[in-house]
Amino acid sequence: MQGSNSIDKLIFEKRDTQIFNIPDTKTRLSTLQNYFFPRLEILLRHTLDVVADVYHVNPYDRMTFVYCPSHREKAKENKDYGFVHIGVAGKRRRDRPLRIIKRDGTPFVLHVSYLTFNVLPNGTMHVNLLPFRQYVDDAHIAEISALVEKHSEILLPLLSLAHISYNSFLPLHNLILLKDKYITLFSPKYYFPVSSGRGFDELIIAFVLLYALEESFICIAEGEEPELAKMLEQFKEWYVKLPNIEDEIEEGEEEENLGLSEIPELDSYSFVRAGKWWAVLARDKWKCLSCGRSSREDGVLLEVDHIIPRSKGGSDDMINLQTLCKKCNIGKSNKDSTRL
Ligand SMILES: [Zn+2]
After folding, report:
1. Cα 193 to the chain's mean position, in Å?
2. Ligand 1 centroid vs 291 CA: distance in angstroms?
3. What is the C-alpha to C-alpha distance for residues 234 and 208, in angstroms, rounded to an integer?
4. What is the C-alpha to C-alpha distance for residues 324 and 293, in angstroms, rounded to an integer?
């Protein structure tokens, strides 16, 4: 990973929450697909690199990416669920059905546990683990509960170390009592702006720890022996060697503030109405009109540029607005009125 795809340059800003306010559903969904998911993917891929290092596994062997809403452009059910998640679930096995049984007595074909980064319209990001996002048979819940109970001595302190809580007052190994309810394990929510040194580190730690559970749940569903004890030891080994997150923030603070103070001058977002901002990106097919790069393919940050600058009387009409990537926009100075 390098250049604009690096996690160091990745930031989720307050304005990103405006995507949820785009009134037209189609534009909103394609903005999510073309502008939001590509950046979440950078975070997810980076996190899976960490997972690979910590547990000495290749996450891509076992996991597949899951998106909500669907990332497919022509998805049949292009619904808007009012929130966004991207993460991993077990790959579909074609050779044999899963050991989890549906209400109607047939086995599940797709895995039911999801580990995701979730973004809510209020501008927060958190990590979320759903052990079963659909109704599953008691036998499966019992197996998961037994696994949690068996390892609770190591697991529970690690969960609290990573600030992970869950939506029940019952002990975690009593999941069986929840039956029809959906148990969720989740990290704290971090308010935008979220970036390296500002939420990412904590979110990645939470994701990496919960990955050990996600992988174990998948093993159980596939009839394999989970290696939770070994993975929790590997997590502990990795965690104790981590540099102190708070120290890092202090060191990087000055630099970060400098960067933030530059944004308003370069940023058209404060001038252009949110709906129009995204409409310009949609019209230009989420590509920089200068270099042709996109968020989806190249991970660049796209901005809306005034062709004739506002300082020279340029209007906020669509015809005076164009999509540029951050790099090209910085290159095109305020005096330049090039229509690209
Ligand atoms: Zn460009």
Report:
1. 14
2. 4
3. 11
4. 9
Rg (CA), the chain: 22
Q: Are strands 124-130 and 165-166 parallel, antiparallel or unpaired?
A: unpaired
Q: 64 by DSSP, 3-state: which?
A: strand
Q: Which residue reads 């190994």 in tokens?
A: 173
Q: Using one digit for the tens of pLDDT, what is the confidence trace for 261-277?
A: 333 344 566 666 766 77
Rounded to 5 degrees, φ, ψ at 276 are -70, -40
Each domain of the chain, given as residue ranges in start order, spans 3-250, 269-331
Verdict on whether the full-model pTM lies above 0.90: no
Q: Which tens digit of pLDDT belongs to each residue from 67-104?
A: 988 766 665 555 666 788 999 999 988 888 899 888 88
Which positions ≥6 away from 5 have C-beta within 8 Å? 42, 298, 299
DSSP secondary structure letters along 152-191: HHHHHHHHHHTT-EES-SS-GGGGGGTTTS---EEPPPEE
* 287 Cα to the center of ligand 1, angstroms: 8
Cα-flanking dihedrals φ and ψ of residue 39, to 5°? -80, -35
Fold that domain 3-250 belongs to in CATH: BirA Bifunctional Protein; domain 2 (3.30.930)
- 330 CA to centre of ligand 1 in angstroms: 10
How far apart CA 69 and CA 154 sit, in angstroms, is 35
To which H or E segment does residue 322 belong?
Answer: strand 321-325
Enumerate residues with CB within 5 Å of ligand 1 (an ion).
Answer: 288, 290-291, 325, 328
